[in-house]
Amino acid sequence: MQRRERTRHLIELGGLVQKAGLVELTEDDRATIYGALLELVGRARGDDAGDTLALWKRRGKRAFDAEEEAREMAG
């Protein structure tokens, strides 16, 4: 991945952290956000990893779809 692509990718990931509400929830405490993300990774590597990842994917897709639908209705 080239530098510009990597930078854009990292910015988009940061945007997802913001969009999910973690920044506001943790009052922008980086250690708390990092700890939460580490907890998620631990769960995703657990015995029911496939189910966990599938659940997260469904929730994320529904949220993206709802945002898109709201944008279409507003515009």
TrEMBL record:
<dbReference type="Pfam" id="PF06412">
    <property type="entry name" value="TraD"/>
</dbReference>
<protein>
    <recommendedName>
        <fullName>Conjugal transfer protein TraD</fullName>
    </recommendedName>
</protein>
<dbReference type="InterPro" id="IPR009444">
    <property type="entry name" value="Conjugal_tfr_TraD_a-type"/>
</dbReference>
